[in-house]
Write a structure and sequence with these properties.
The complex is a heterodimer of chains A (about 110) and B (about 120). By secondary structure, chain A is mostly beta strands. Chain A has strands spanning about 5, 10-15, 20-25, 30-40, 45-50, 55-60, 60-65, 70-75, 85-95, 100, 105-110. The chains are: A mainly beta (about 110), B mainly beta (about 120).
């Protein structure tokens, strides 16, 4: 059974720092992994999608990596800004089934 | 020009009532989902439809009944509402990888803004 874990649950860093958010999964038979951000009271916004054949994806200051063999993905945020404050969730789509599994999220706070 | 839209955004109702939440996507996707986000912000799949056919039905009380009139719409009807049903319900859609279109973004999930249900 696929399980997705995000540690830490919460993170607070000063503005300008580079930071890494972690996502781990127990079953390496995945189709893709997707990172989202969720602002309070809002829906989920897709940030990056990594297909199983890819190692990383980049969008602006964001870079997501995928290592299937170790069951890990990281989301790297460069030069963090207060506007990056949100909850970041990763989601894993299994290779066989359609049931996408979400991590519990990391609540990120960027201090001005 | 919202991709996945759901209504209503807020719903406050009494225990025992019946209510519906509607969802529509204009992305041309063939798969739609309902997720429930509880007070601890954990997202859990409830249902998934592919081309109007139910493919995922998690352990959800049968008071919850999804209906997909076409592949662009997936509605959620809830009977006899209970206090524990209070949550945010999210609709989502994706283009399933099993279809002919196997582009680089196949399987990417897009969410609506959520419908916050409060049962009093």
């Amino acid at each position: 059974k696929q399980e997705v874990t995000q540690i830490p649950a919460a993170l607070s860093v000063p503005e300008g720092e580079n930071l890494v958010l972690n996502c781990s999964f127990t079953d390496s038979a995945i189709y893709n992994l997707q990172w989202f951000r969720q602002d309070p009271g809002k829906g989920l916004t897709s940030l990056l999608l990594i297909q199983s054949s890819q190692r990383e994806q980049t969008s602006g200051r964001l870079n997501a990596s995928l290592d299937k063999s170790s069951g890990r993905s990281t989301l790297y945020i460069a030069a963090s800004q207060p506007g990056d404050s949100a909850t970041y969730l990763c989601a894993v789509r299994p290779l066989v089934a359609s049931k996408i599994i979400f991590g519990s999220g990391t609540r990120l706070s960027i201090r001005p | 020009d919202t991709a996945v839209s759901q209504t209503p955004k807020y719903l406050v109702t009494q225990m025992g009532n019946d209510k519906s939440i509607k969802c529509e996507q204009n992305l041309g996707h063939d798969t739609m989902y309902w997720y429930k986000q509880d007070s601890k912000k954990f997202l859990k799949i409830m249902f998934s439809y592919n081309n109007k056919e139910l493919i995922i039905n998690e352990t959800v009380p049968n008071r919850f009944s999804p209906k997909s009139p076409d592949k662009a719409h997936l509605n959620l009807h809830i009977n006899s509402l209970e206090l524990g049903d209070s949550a945010v319900y999210f609709c989502a859609s994706s283009q399933d990888r099993a279809q002919n279109r196997q582009g680089p973004n196949t399987g990417e999930l897009f969410f609506g803004e959520g419908s916050r249900l409060t049962v009093l």
